[in-house]
Write a structure and sequence with these properties.
Length: about 250
């Protein structure tokens, strides 16, 4: 069984949805796909997207991203935690797993998360422009740190006996040095909303040897302190320079 990774497909964009429709329905029938978040905040479109992948792959594993829990245009008092529950329900109905998955002696471990400003405090420009601050709605008393802690607490961190390899995956970055050094300083204002160091602590507790992440839209494969980190984001239609816009095979099990 080959293992493929993909994130940030954003099928709200017609070009991205067109790519999915054109994806082979024959070539991946015995393979596993990790979807590391940000498909769409529209539930019918999410169901369509997940269903298309289920038709093509033997196993589809998914962890939602920030866009997936947007409630923009949806009436209060619905919160993004309610939206997360809807996303989980949609995934289950489509035959997609958001839970740890055992394939032979390899454990695939989804890690929910958010950002908690462990990568820096947001400046005024970021507070004005970051869409999550408008498109997400949280229960009273929930700021980013509380949201992140809530999702981190949902992650299963026990490894079954007999497991020889752990592959973990999250939408958010588990460490800030995954941002490549060539990223211009003007874009580093986004650092505070990229992820959480708590994710790295969890994947290392699991003994993960390979971690798939998304969110940054910057394709990268790098080894840090014994862990291989891989980002294969599809990205927005105009991001050809930083996103390969293809499935990436990350190994076999």
């Amino acid at each position: 069984m080959r293992v493929f990774a993909l994130s940030d497909l954003h099928v709200d964009y017609p070009d991205n949805a067109r790519w999915l429709r054109a994806l082979s329905a024959q070539d991946y029938r015995e393979d596993l796909l990790i979807l590391a978040g940000d498909l769409t905040h529209r539930r019918p479109l999410l169901a369509w997207c997940l269903g298309e992948f289920v038709r093509r792959f033997a196993t589809v594993l998914f962890v939602p991203g920030n866009h997936d829990v947007w409630v923009a245009g949806e009436a209060a008092p619905k919160t993004s935690l309610d939206k997360f529950a809807e996303v989980a329900s949609t995934a289950f109905e489509c035959g997609v797993s958001m839970k740890p998955h055992l394939a032979g002696r390899t454990l695939f471990a989804p890690l929910l998360g958010w950002y908690d400003y462990s990568f820096g405090e947001p400046g005024e420009e970021l507070r004005r422009s970051w869409s999550d601050f408008v498109a997400c709605r949280w229960p009273p008393g929930y700021g980013p740190a509380q949201v992140c802690a809530h999702f981190l607490s949902m992650n299963a961190l026990e490894v079954p006996r007999g497991v020889e390899r752990v592959i973990s995956f999250s939408h958010f970055l588990p460490r800030i040095d995954l941002v490549p050094p060539y990223v211009p300083a003007r874009h580093r204002m986004l650092d505070p909303v990229l992820g959480s160091a708590g994710l790295d602590a969890q994947l290392r507790r699991l003994g993960s040897s390979l971690h798939v992440y998304g969110h940054s839209h910057i394709n990268r494969s790098v080894r840090i302190d014994g862990v291989d980190y891989v980002n294969n984001a599809f990205g927005y239609p105009n991001e050809d320079a930083i996103a390969a816009k293809r499935l990436l095979c990350i190994g076999e099990v």
